[in-house]
Amino acid sequence: MKIYQQTLALRERRRGFHIITSEVEDALPQISEINTGICQVFIQHTSASLTINENADPTVRMDFEMFFNKTVKENDPDYEHDYEGSDDMPAHLKAALLGSSLTIPIRNGRLALGTWQGIYLCEHRNHGGQRRLIITAWGE
Questions:
Q1: What is the pLDDT of residues 54-87, one digit of tens each?
Q2: Long-range contacts of range 77-86, CB-CB < 8 Å, 24 or more positions apart?
Q3: Smallest Cα–Cα separation from 126: which of 65, 78, 81?
Q4: Is 7 within 8 Å of 134 (Cβ atoms)?
Q5: Residues 6+ apart with CB under 8 A from 109
Q6: What is this structure's pTM?
Q7: Does residue 68 sit in helix, strand or coil?
Q8: Cβ atoms of 27 and 8 closer than 8 Å
Q9: Please, how many CA atoms are within 13 Å of residue 46, restricted to the half-sphere of its CB?
């Protein structure tokens, strides 16, 4: 069994949902050496998250942002964790809903994503800064 791991520093992005599939693939080219396996992508932050969804129509990403902003509102007076700004606690909640880790099958040296699937960085802060991912792939 082969095991590979790489840390990827993503540049700062504005708040929203961003396709990062090619950045993940480029960060770990050893995936091409695995015929059958698994790739795990983990984000080391509590105010951003990862998900897999539609990679073709940008309005999907806009609708994701609209939905989460309506569902998890800023400036809620009931939030006690508010000293890092009005977007901080909502960012933690959004990240908890979406998750910090993805598991993607590897088939014939490639991520086995569906035709219309892409990996999203979900940036929930107005100024989240650079984000770090740990990408681990294993298999035969």
A1: 999 999 999 999 999 999 999 999 999 988 999 9
A2: 85/125, 85/126
A3: 65
A4: yes
A5: 31, 32, 33, 34, 35
A6: 0.96
A7: helix
A8: yes
A9: 6
